[in-house]
From TrEMBL:
Domain RNase H type-2 per the UniProt entry, residue ranges: 11-199
Main location as per UniProt: cytoplasm
HAMAP family referenced in this protein's UniProt entry, alphabetically: RNase_HII_B (MF_00052_B)
GN (gene name): rnhB
Protein role: Endonuclease that specifically degrades the RNA of RNA-DNA hybrids.
Cofactor note (record): Manganese or magnesium. Binds 1 divalent metal ion per monomer in the absence of substrate. May bind a second metal ion after substrate binding.
InterPro entries xrefs: RNase_HII, RNase_HII/HIII, RNase_HII/HIII_dom, RNaseH-like_sf, RNaseH_sf
Gene3D superfamilies referenced in this protein's UniProt entry, alphabetically: Ribonuclease H-like superfamily/Ribonuclease H
GO CC field: cytoplasm; ribonuclease H2 complex
Cellular compartment(s): Cytoplasm
Residue positions binding a divalent metal cation: D17, E18, D113
Reaction(s) the record says it catalyses: Endonucleolytic cleavage to 5'-phosphomonoester
Enzyme Commission number, as recorded: 3.1.26.4
The protein's name: Ribonuclease HII
Amino acid sequence: MSAQLFSHSQILIAGVDEVGRGCLFGPVVAAAVVLEKSSIPQLQEIGVKDSKKLSAKRRETLATAIKNRAISYHISYASSQEIDRLNILNASLLAMKRSITKLSITPQLCLIDGNQKVPNLTIPQETIIGGDKSSPLIAAASILAKVWRDQLIVRLAAKYPHYDLENNKGYGTKKHRLALQQYGLCFHHRRSFKLKIDK
């Protein structure tokens, strides 16, 4: 596909990002968000930026605004069992590929956060290191993925109350690790990670 086409204002571009890579519990979640190139500045206007720099309430508000503006979006994941089988990098790329291929419309270019291209993707793609900070479209994807994953973990927290998941969202806080020592692993823990559950 030519550079001239990529410069066209109406080209459909997908921003793609994942969240939850460093967690001990739960899936890695990816989102793909499609907009026309000319519409991407609107994301900055409504305050879209790196999801880690936003409060949970602000992320939820922006997630709704992003969905309303997107031509298409999709959120997918790779389970903790897939992470254990494939490793976290390959599982993250799998979640990204699922989010792209399940879009209701095919973008002409995918902007991928990080330095690893999505394997066996037929759509042209460009990797951007720190893309969630420099690309509002990738940042939009990170917000959708983060909100979806956090809501999932809060629901799972009711089923697994010992691990303080509502507060740590699956990350390896001191309280989470102490609970692992006391109660052991549950179905959604990543067994390939160094969980240090020896008493």
